[in-house]
Specification:
By secondary structure, the chain is mainly β. Helix content is 4%, strand content 39%. It has a 17-stranded parallel sheet that branches. Strands 4-7-10-22-25-27-29-32 form an eight-stranded parallel sheet, with no helix packed on it. It is globular.
Length: 388
């Protein structure tokens, strides 16, 4: 929605907008106005609650100085949402909550008003992050930092060797996911990093790893290099999280690119926790919905504890899904939904512990269907899958 974007020299501050909105007593969402840019100026870890949602019609920018927790019921992006990776020791957490359906009021169709009488309004369910005609420009992780790698060598009970390039992006205290090395799909390991040597690629763990064999398989052995276990980092300094406040605990948040063709979306370096809504079709952690050609990149993200699926491309072409990690998710994970999707790329993604979905969504991963859960569900071979 280019008409509402701006590069003005004197942007608004989100703290001032939030204070003014609260004083006004408005029952509508906090709006970043058309033609205006707002800067997230919270730098002290403050918690900000926006009970009626956030509607970005202009531009909202999270600079590297942002250090904030935002609690809200919905986020609508009709303009542009910018995020950069927060500075060291800073973090951005967006928490969605609520049990009531949230409505999108398209800026043009509803004349900029949040009026229930507007015929163009769209029900997007509970806890949505919805991009509708707008643009995500979320680059919260360096493209030089990969989300996962293959183990080089299990040196000792508390030492793992990985590539120096991967180790250079790991910090002390980071949680590691070490994929199963056995015939048991749920035999993954969790350890935190106690020390890092980025020159040698040596990671020292906070606790020993016990295995049924002497060592975990790495590219240096034991066994063939192709069977080396995967090691992933699960931490991100930007987190999108949903509360478990619904009586049905399978109802998390969902992010949807909603009927938004041609706009290049960029979503990189975010941890999605408790997203997806079990049994509700179209409610997934990351979902491109009927957006025709979308020259977009989803990379370097972590999806954990998903209640339904992971990254879903639905009647959309030209999306690149690269270097993402999905862990402990339910139902099909990385999927093309109907078979009409073409020219999408799924490259170097990892799925660990893909579990069955126990809520009926009417599709093939439902308990009333064959009840299967595929980490990669491929409906059309006119898409590229490699390195996964």
């Amino acid at each position: 929605m280019d008409i509402c974007l701006t590069e003005e020299a004197f942007p608004l501050s989100l703290s001032n907008l939030a204070a003014e909105h609260e004083l006004s007593g408005s029952i509508g969402p906090l709006v970043i106005p058309c033609g205006k840019c707002a800067i997230v100026d919270y730098e002290d870890g403050s918690t900000v609650t926006l009970p009626n949602g956030l509607d970005i019609v202009g531009r909202l920018h999270f600079p590297l100085t942002a250090n904030v927790i935002i609690n809200t019921t919905a986020v609508f992006v009709q303009g542009q949402l910018d995020m950069t990776e927060p500075a060291p020791n800073n973090a951005v957490k967006l928490t969605l909550y609520g049990v009531e359906d949230q409505y999108l009021y398209p800026y043009t169709a509803c004349s900029g008003q949040h009026d229930a009488a507007c015929m163009g309004r769209q029900n997007l369910g509970t806890k949505p992050i919805a991009v509708a005609g707008g643009r995500l420009n979320v680059i919260a992780r360096s493209p030089d930092c990969h989300s996962w790698t293959h183990l080089v060598e299990h040196v000792s009970d508390t030492e793992l060797e990985v590539s120096p390039a991967f180790a250079a992006c790991v910090k002390v205290g980071d949680p590691l996911l070490i994929a199963s090395a056995s015939n048991t799909w749920s035999d993954e390991k969790h350890r935190n990093v106690a020390a890092v040597n980025s020159a040698t690629g040596m990671l020292t763990l906070d606790a020993p790893i016990s295995t049924t064999t002497d060592k975990l398989p790495g590219t240096n052995g034991p066994g063939e290099p192709e069977f080396a276990v995967e090691v992933a980092t699960l931490s991100r300094s930007v987190v999108f999280h949903a509360q478990n406040d619904n009586p049905q605990t399978q109802i998390g948040g969902h992010l949807i690119i909603f009927h938004t063709p041609t706009e290049p979306q960029r979503l990189s370096g975010v941890r999605f926790d408790n997203f997806g809504q079990g049994g509700i079709l179209g409610r997934y952690p990351i979902h491109w919905h009927m957006s025709d050609v979308s020259p977009s990149i989803i990379s370097g993200n972590v999806i954990v504890n998903s209640n339904q699926r992971c990254v879903v491309i639905h009647d959309t072409n030209g999306v690149t899904v690269q270097d993402n990690v999905a862990y402990k998710t339910k139902g099909h994970c990385y999927i093309t939904e109907t078979g009409a999707e073409e020219n999408n790329v799924f490259a170097s993604n990892l799925g660990v512990r893909t579990e069955l979905l126990y809520f009926d969504n009417g599709q093939s991963d439902s308990p009333t269907a064959p009840h299967e859960a595929a980490t990669f569900w491929i409906r059309n071979m006119r898409n590229e899958f490699y390195g996964n």
